[in-house]
C-alpha cells in the first residue's frame, strides 16, 4: 500500500507541475483549478490503469492518460468560466502527461518494483 501511495503522489505531483506549466502560465489559471485538474486526472488515470494495466502496453496507457488529461482540461474549459485553456496548451499538456506517464514506470522500476 505504501508503494501505491507513493506512485499516486508522484503521478499527482507530475500532473500538477505539467498543468501548472502549461495551463497556469499560458492560460493564466488559478492554482485551485490546476489542483482540481491534477486531482481528477490522477484519480481517473489510476482507475484506468487498474482496468487495463496487464492487458495493454505502457505506451498505450501513456497515450490514453495524455488524452484523458487533455480531455479533462477541455471539459473544465467548457463548464467553468474561470478556467481558460487554448488548444495549444491542451495539446502540450496532453503530450507532457503522456511522456511523463511513459517514463515514470521506467524510472521507478530502476529503484523499486512499482505496480498501480
In short:
The chain is mostly helical and 116 residues long.
Textual characterization of the structure:
By secondary structure, the protein is mainly alpha-helical. The protein has one domain. Helix content is 79%, strand content 0%. The protein is built from four helices and no strands. Helix 2 packs antiparallel against helix 3. The longest helix is centred in the last third of the chain and has 25 residues, at 87-111. The protein starts with a helix and ends in a 5-residue tail after the last helix.
SSE arrangement:
Blueprint lengths: L1 H23 L6 H22 L5 H22 L7 H25 L5
SS elements, strand count: 0
Helix content: over 70%
Distance between the termini: 10 Å
How much strand? under 5%
The tally of domains stands at 1
Shape: globular
How large is the count of helical segments? 4
User: How would you characterize the largest beta sheet?
Assistant: none
Oligomer: single chain
Structural class assignment: mainly alpha
Radius of gyration: 14 Å
Low-confidence stretches: none
- Whole-number mean pLDDT: 84
Order of H and E elements = HHHH
